[in-house]
Specification:
This protein is α+β, with helices and mostly antiparallel strands and 208 residues long. The protein contains eight helices and nine strands. It has a single domain (8-202), classed as Aminopeptidase (3-Layer(aba) Sandwich). It has helices spanning 25-31, 35-41, 48-60, 80-83, 117-132, 147-155, 178-187, 196-202, and strands spanning 8-11, 15-19, 64-71, 84-91, 100-107, 137-143, 159-164, 169-175, 192-195. The chain has a nine-stranded mixed beta sheet with strand order 7-8-6-5-4-3-2-1-9, with helices on both faces. Helix 1 (25-31) crosses helix 3 (48-60) and helix 5 (117-132) packs across helix 7. The longest helix has 16 residues, at 117-132. It is globular, with a radius of gyration of 16 Å.
Length: 208
């Protein structure tokens, strides 16, 4: 199962990625009441209980890898739920080709948009996918009206490969050549990988 990242923290300059735990669900649930986010993520509002079930399934499913995006300036220091800015996911949806990962990024906090948080979180997740999960091809499916997201992925070397007028979404793709792999690892060479349990313990917030 995709528990590979359950003790992994990826600490970048602007963002820190931590595993999605039950403690994050109430805040996440609050975000997903927003009609704008429902539209951008093409998702239905869930009850808090359903959101908890979803979190458990995300943790157990072998074909999903998810991190909550925290603001590096705030955490550790402030409580995680007060430091949450979004989430980033990798879906391994192609049974024939396990080297394809579909990536999704959501910066839910309006005050954190347009500040490079999404870009760094996406780079961290891509580098993790390449190093730990053997991903060599990335795909991103984005609603046509979400121009900021489309332009961000293009800056990360993704190319537009398809447009679906039915789903009103654009599919972008990146094949990780040796050159792209080097670029990706250079972009993320500042990232520290840490143990989630140890960091929480150090912050003195570990539940006994």
């Amino acid at each position: 199962a995709m528990k590979i990242n359950q003790d992994t923290v990826l600490r970048g300059k602007k963002v820190t990625l931590v595993p999605y735990t039950a403690a994050h669900v109430p805040r996440y649930h609050e975000w997903m009441q927003s009609e704008e986010l429902q539209r951008l993520t093409a998702s239905e509002p869930l009850s808090l209980e359903q959101e908890h079930e979803m979190q458990r399934s995300w943790r157990e499913d072998a074909d999903k890898c998810t991190f909550i995006v925290l603001d590096s300036e705030r955490w550790p220091g402030e409580a995680e739920e007060n430091s949450m800015v979004g989430d980033v996911n990798l879906f391994l949806t192609n049974a024939e080709d396990p080297t394809v990962g579909e990536i999704e990024i959501m910066i839910a906090e309006p005050s954190c948009r347009g500040r490079g948080f999404g870009k760094e979180a996406t780079l961290l997740m891509m580098a993790y996918g390449v190093r730990k999960l053997g991903i060599t091809k990335f795909e991103a499916k984005i609603g046509q009206e979400n121009e900021a997201s489309i332009s961000m992925f293009k800056k990360l070397h993704f190319k537009e490969v398809a447009v679906s007028s039915i789903f009103q979404e654009v599919t972008l793709r990146l094949d990780v050549s040796d050159q792209e792999r080097r670029w990706l690892l250079e972009q993320t060479n500042h990232v520290e990988e840490k143990s989630y349990a140890e960091l929480k313990q150090a912050a003195g917030v570990l539940d006994t």
